[in-house]
Amino acid sequence: MGVIKNKEELKFAIIGAGHGGTAMAGHLALLGFDVSLYNRTPERIQIIQHSGGIEILSDQSSIPQGFASLKVITSNLEEAIRDRDVLMVVLPATGHLSIAENMAPFLKDDQIIVLNPGRTGGALEVLNTIRKAGCRANVVVCEAQTLLYTSRSLNPGQTKIFRIKNSVPVAAIPAHKTPDVVKQLRVALTQFIPGDNVMKTSLDNIGSIFHPALTVLNAGRIESTNGDFEYYTEGVTPSVALVLEKLDQERVAVSESLGFRAMTAREWLYIAYDAAGKTLYEAMRNNRGYDGIKAPRIIAHRYISEDIPMSLVPIAHLGRLGEVETPAIDSIILLGSVMHGVDYWTMGRDVSRMGLEGMTLKEIRTFITEGDR
After folding, report:
1. 109 classed as catalytic
2. Does the domain at residues 11-203 carry the CATH identifier 3.40.50.720?
């Protein structure tokens, strides 16, 4: 990495104009940063281009609100990332591989790529992909453990931010570059904190526990009400929470088998939202950040189509590396595959896509922490 840039020098590119991308672009612009916004399909950003920015709304007085002007709004990826210091990828994880392939020819030395979030193995997959594509630029690939925002796009030019998390760990490959990356990010977003390494941020992926199983277990209610209920409060009953806890136990065991400590879902809720409870059920019900978040309207939703292949499948594959069985996780992968009529095992992120094929556990730990294979 180069010298840490100040607020006047630092330039961001936001890759993706969905719920999270528009929230991040608008928030950074309202904080006074130079921001470009990219979306693959021009139709998605047509209204934003016409108005020159995004209107940010919030019920929280601590969150900047108003019209956020953006310097560049484009469907040309080269234009979006040209001369940008930090490339914030805010896309479904199913798009990480293709965006890495498309960015590879245009990347320059000292650029920072941050996946928001990486789900499980995202940074590993992106680094492996850009190197296989022939990119030799001295870039740093990182991932956030979760998305910084709880937000929804109300319409193409207006986004509401419900909550900004207290803290979100970020880790780089290799791990020794993380402190400088976080120092640069915190010039803009002080909520980012150093994560231990990308294996920990990947296996601290709490969305892998909450999203797929909660959607599968509420499938009947979602289809009968078109998602007209509060997803994280009404959708989490004591029995549903017991299933989530079992999934969480398997995730933590996989992490331990690889030599890393993953936080539990209850620990994460307290750190991210100040939500405490003696059980996962109590902690989720005590999280005011989830108030007002409705369930998906349909089962054909990214909580299955993204979170199963890009979160649960790689956790299960990593479990096999560490010789840990994951029967509850495997069952949700199977049920989601049946519901969608696809085989998420074959579509998912495996050790080959993460660039870990043929490596021993010792070699994996060394690569993640030191960058040497």
Report:
1. no
2. yes
